[in-house]
Amino acid sequence: MSTGTAPSLTQNVAPLAAGAHVTGIGWLKGTAAFGLGDGGVLLAKDGESHRVEAHPDAGVLVAASDGERFVTGGDDGRVAVTGSDGSTKTLAETKGAWIDSLAVNAGGAFAYGVGKRVIARDDKGREKTLEVPSAARGLAFAPKGYRLAISHYNGATLWFPNVEAKPESLEWKGSHLDITWSPDARFVVTSMQENALHGWRLIPDKGHMRMSGYPSKTRSFSWSSDGKWLATSGAEAAIIWPFESKEGPMGKAPRECGVRPAKVSRVAFHPNTLVLAVGYEDGCILLIRLNDASELLVRPAVKDSGITAMAWDKGGKRLAFGCEDGQAGILTLP
Amino acid sequence: MTDKIPVTVLTGYLGAGKTTLLNRILTEQHGKKYAVIVNEFGEIGIDNELVVGADEEVFEMNNGCICCTVRGDLIRILDGLMKRKGKFDAIIVETTGLADPAPVAQTFFMDQDVSDTARLDAVVTVADAKWLSDRLKDAPEAKNQIAFADVIILNKIDLVSAGELEEVEARIRAINPYAKVHRTQNCAIPISEVLDRKAFDLDRIIEIEPDFLEEGHHHHHDEEMQSVSVAIDGEVDPEKFMPWISNLTQVEGPNILRCKGIVAFPNEPKRFVFQGVHMILDGDVQGEWKPGEKHTSKVVFIGRDLNEKAIKEGFLACAA
C-alpha cells in the first residue's frame, strides 16, 4: 500500500487555481498551458499565471501540444491555438459540431475529428478530409512522417493525408476509443469500450494483440522514452505492458505499479528516465521508479479532486497536473 | 446518488410533437439549465442552453449478447459534458422518430463512466393521437417507443373524436399498461409530469405505481407486443426465483423490452425490487414491508411474442 509511507515531494509542488475542470495540459517551453472545461487556457510560468479566453462561453474538450503551440478543440466547434505569449486564434471552425478528438504533429500540422470526418492540415496549410466508417474517437500522428492513426467503431484506419493511396484498415470488432502509436512506429494500440486494449503489430506481420483484465476503461496511456513500456490507466494500479520484443506484450504479464484503493486516471512517463507519474481518481499523484518500484508522493488524495491531466516539460524537470474540480499544480523536481 | 445528473430520453414517431415538447420544456420559467442532445439542429431556438448534436451510433458490446447495444455517441457526449459539470442541472436526449430506445437506456447500465455520473430518469414518448394507431400497424419503432415508455404524451387530441381517443389509448394500454399517459394539445403539460420522474430508481418503482401490486384489468390485446404480469399471493423462494429470472432474461432478453417486479422473500423484512431492459437486470432489497402489510410478489414483462403461459408457470413455481 502506498502514500502513507512514500517519501514526499509535496513541498516541491506550487499549487495553482485553474478554476475549472482541467481537460489537457501542454508545455510551451517554460510555460505550462492548462486547457479548461470553461473554455479558458491558463498559462503559468515562474509562479505567475495568465488566463486566455480561447473558447469564450464554451469548453475545451481536448488539447494537444507540440511544444510550441497549445491547440484546443471545443464544444463551440472550433480548433484554437494559444501561444506562450497569451495570443490565441482560431485554426479551424465547424458548424456547431464538437471537436473532441485532436492531434498535433511537430512542425505545425494538426488533425481533428468532426463526427465521421477527419480533417488534416499540414504545415503548409494544405487541408485533406477523410471519412471513416463511424465517428473518429481518437487521433494520433505517427512518430515520423505525416501519417495519422484514427480509432473508431470496429477498428482503426491509418492514413497518409498527402498520399493518394487508399487508407489502411485495421479491423477488430468493437468500439475503439483512444489511440497511440509506439515511438518506434511498430505498434498501434487502442483502448476499447470493453475495458481492454487492442494492438496491431504493423511490422512484420499485422498480428493482433489483446490486453485485457482491466476493471474499467483505459483513457490514458504513455510510452516510456525508450519505447519499451506502455503505461496505462483503468485499474487500481498503473498497468505497464512490455513492448521491448518485436512480438509486443503477448504471452507476457504486465507490471503493476502504485497499487492503491483508487483507480488510476492518468499516467505520464518521464521524458528521459524510467519514472512514471501516476494520477488517481481520488486526487493522489505518485512518482514511481520502474527499476525498483520505489514511490514518491507528489499529491495526497483530495476529495472530489481526481486527476484529469498531467504533462512533463521537455527536460523532465517539471510535472504539471490538473484536476476535475479546477485545482492544479506544478511539481519542480529538486 | 443524489448528485448524478438526471437524463430524460424523449422519443416519439416523426411529427408527433417531440420538438414542441422540447421547446416547451426549455422556454418555461423553471430556473434550471438543460444540456440538450439533439439529432438535428435548427428547430430549437434556445440560445442559453447547451445544445449538442448526436450521431445515433449504435454499437454492439463484445460480450456475446446480441441485444446488448449502446449508443457510442452518447457515451462520448456525456464524457464531454462532464467537463462542464455545474453548467447545467439535467440532460435531455432527443432521439429521431425511428430510434429504438433500448440502446439509449442500456448505455446507462452498460457504461461505467456514464452510470457513475448520470442516471436515466425516464423514457418519455410523444404519440400522435390521430396517427398512432396506423403507426403501430406499420412501424415497429413506434411500438417499441410505446412499449418502452415511462411517460406517454398522447398529443394532438383536438384532432380526434372522443371515441377515437378511447380507441388509441386502449391500444397504448394493450402494449404498455404501466406507463403514465397524459392527453395533451400542443404538448401542454406541467413539466413536473415529464422531468424528474425517477422511473428507473428502484426505490421509486413502488411510489410511482401505487397500483403496482394490484391486479390490472386490460381487455385489449396487441397481437405482437404485450405485457405479461404474474402475481403470487405470498412470498417466493430466492433459490428458485433468482435462477429463474436470470435465465428468463438471458434467453428471452431480445424479446423483453422492459421488466419490473416487487418480490417478497421469506425472513427478509425488505422488498426485493428489480427492473430491467432486455438482458440487463438491476435489483436490490429496498423499502421495508409495513407492519401487518400483506407480503405479495409480482412481476411484469413488456415485450414481443412473449410466452405468457411459460412465464406465468415459471414464476408461480418460484412460490416459497
Automatic annotation (TrEMBL), chain A:
Keywords: Repeat, WD repeat
Protein name, as recorded: WD40 repeat-containing protein
Top-level taxon: Bacteria
Domain Anaphase-promoting complex subunit 4-like WD40: 269-331
Signal peptide: none
Species assigned in the record: Microvirga lotononidis
Species classification: Bacteria, Pseudomonadati, Pseudomonadota, Alphaproteobacteria, Hyphomicrobiales
InterPro entries named among the record's database cross-references: Apc4-like_WD40_dom (IPR024977), WD40/YVTN_repeat-like_dom_sf (IPR015943), WD40_repeat_dom_sf (IPR036322), WD40_rpt (IPR001680), WD_repeat_multifunction (IPR051179)
UniProt-listed Pfam families: ANAPC4_WD40
TrEMBL record, chain B:
Recorded family membership: Belongs to the SIMIBI class G3E GTPase family. ZNG1 subfamily.
InterPro entries reported in the protein's UniProt record: CobW-likC_sf, CobW-like_C, CobW/HypB/UreG_nucleotide-bd, P-loop_NTPase, Zinc-reg_GTPase_activator
Enzymatic reactions: GTP + H2O = GDP + phosphate + H(+)
Matching PANTHER family: COBW C-TERMINAL DOMAIN-CONTAINING PROTEIN (PTHR13748:SF59), COBW-RELATED (PTHR13748)
Record keyword Endoplasmic reticulum present: no
Domain of life: Bacteria
Keyword Nucleotide-binding: yes
Keywords, sorted A to Z: Chaperone, Hydrolase, Nucleotide-binding
Residue span(s) of domain CobW C-terminal: 225-319
GO terms, molecular function: hydrolase activity; nucleotide binding
Role noted for this protein: Zinc chaperone that directly transfers zinc cofactor to target proteins, thereby activating them. Zinc is transferred from the CXCC motif in the GTPase domain to the zinc binding site in target proteins in a process requiring GTP hydrolysis.
Protein name per Swiss-Prot or TrEMBL: Putative GTPase, G3E family
